[in-house]
Write a structure and sequence with these properties.
This protein is an alpha/beta fold. It has two domains: about 70 residues, no CATH class; about 180 residues, 3-Layer(aba) Sandwich (Aspartate Aminotransferase, domain 2), CATH 3.40.640. Strand 11 and strand 12 form a beta hairpin. Helix 2 runs parallel beside helix 8 and helix 9 packs across helix 10. The protein starts with about 25 loop residues before the first helix and ends with a helix.
Length: about 280
Amino acid sequence: MERIRIAHTYDAKWLEIERPQPLVDNHIESLIAKVIKGGVFTDITDQVYTDFKTEMHTWLSMSTLNSLTGLEHFQRIDIINGCTQYIDNIYIDGPAQTIEGDYRYHQRLNKPCSVIGLLAPNVPLIIALPFPRVGQVHEQMETILNECIEKNIPVHIDGAWITCCRDIEFDLNHTAIHSVGISLSKGLGLGWNRIGIRYSRNDAPNSVTIMNDFHMNNRALSMIGLYFLRNLPPDYLWNKYSSSYYKICTDFNLTPTKSIHLALRDGQPVGLSPLIRFLNE
């Protein structure tokens, strides 16, 4: 498996502009190596599905750097193959809208952006939290949610970056929010093994619920996800690399965000992973 880039010099040329990559360190790579070599699994039954959902939910609640409340009000938890499957499932159900600056996957699908204040009524909104353009909660999030209530717009929260963030305080039990998807890709270096959970207000059948109800999920994804949950604590990256992160921001005149791999330069996002690895490895 190809390693995440490591800067060769402490220079601004190593800031990632086009596609900032999540931070993966030597320890995470050693866990990946153990998985690839085999011998880390003790249970290959369907019990791994239940264990994964239970342990990931508990793992999220153990964060001391973030405060996500309200998830207990969601009726159902399902396994997802990362937040991309979560998004695809919403698009399968019909039209959906996003706003400018969100996950580029929407653009690659040629989905048009809506404008805050002019959101289409009755059309579901997918919005990332934290928001990729700023690496933290969208600065107009409350305004957006209030508009969605007024226009009967179901909101679906893409929490792909939650596990690599700090200082995210948010009550997900907002009337407008219908579902929340959270994956381990960014926080635990599992972009190669996309796995996460989706919280839903109801249990209406869709492609995700059907795959879960009939045990159609890839069992290996859940087993590997469990292995990483059990071997990496919540807030792992921030607890280990916060000093390096803020040093880089200071040295290169960058604005810090809440995401360990992202800062802002002149208001535009840049990736710090290669420089963080240079300072530590």
